[in-house]
């Protein structure tokens, strides 16, 4: 049932798109790009700008604040940027934990060796009384 609704939604958008939206292939060199701060007629904004709900090209500020990427509209480059930052933070945290655990293990081994070297057990054969038969 959910799949049927999804197919109807997709087909409805392909057959009858939303009125007022203009679709243009912005990657073509012949299509003019609108600079930031101007109203875009074809929906194509210059690099670093995005089209807001009014149709004006505004500067994308997804990294200006911690919740900037939650505001609409954002581009995939903004999501990818935040993904890279979060992934790097996770990798750094994981490596820091591994280094700290390794350091704790090495200190434990070193202290164990010191303790064993300090208290040497004597075997009965090495004692002076064992040489007398």
Q: What is the number of beta strands?
A: 2
What is the gyration radius calculated from CA atoms?
A: 34 Å
Rounded to the nearest angstrom, the distance between the terminal CA atoms is 96 Å
- In terms of per-residue confidence, which ranges show pLDDT below 50 for 5 or more consecutive residues? 13-18
Helix content: 40-55%
- Helix/strand/pairing class, anyone? mainly alpha
Apparent shape: elongated
Strand order of the largest sheet: 1-2
Strand content: under 5%
* SSE topology string: HEEH
The count of helical stretches stands at 2
Question: Major sheet: size, sense and barrel closure?
Answer: 2 strands, antiparallel
Mean pLDDT, rounded to whole units? 76
Structure description:
Residues 1-20 form the signal peptide. 43% of the residues lie in helices and 5% in strands. A two-stranded antiparallel sheet has the order 1-2. Among the domains are: 19-59, no CATH class; 76-119. The protein starts with a helix and ends in a 15-residue tail after the last helix. 5% of the residues are buried. The protein has 133 residues and is mainly α. β1 (49-51) and β2 (57-59) form a beta hairpin. The protein contains two helices and two strands, in the order αββα.
Quick rundown:
By secondary structure, the protein is mostly helical. The chain has helices at residues 2-15, 76-118; strands at residues 49-51, 57-59. The chain is built from two helices and two strands.
């Amino acid at each position: 049932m959910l799949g049927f609704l999804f197919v109807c939604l997709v087909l409805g958008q392909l057959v009858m798109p939303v009125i007022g939206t203009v679709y243009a292939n912005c990657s073509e060199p012949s299509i003019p790009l609108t600079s930031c701060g101007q109203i875009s007629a074809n929906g194509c904004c210059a690099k670093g700008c995005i089209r807001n709900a009014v149709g004006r090209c505004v500067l994308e500020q997804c990294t200006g604040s911690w919740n900037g990427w939650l505001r609409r509209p954002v581009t995939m480059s903004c999501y990818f940027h935040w993904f890279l930052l979060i992934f790097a933070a996770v990798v750094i945290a994981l490596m820091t934990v591994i280094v700290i655990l390794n350091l704790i293990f090495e200190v434990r081994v070193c202290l164990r060796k010191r303790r064993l070297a300090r208290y040497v057990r004597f075997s009965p054969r090495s004692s002076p009384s064992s040489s007398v038969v």
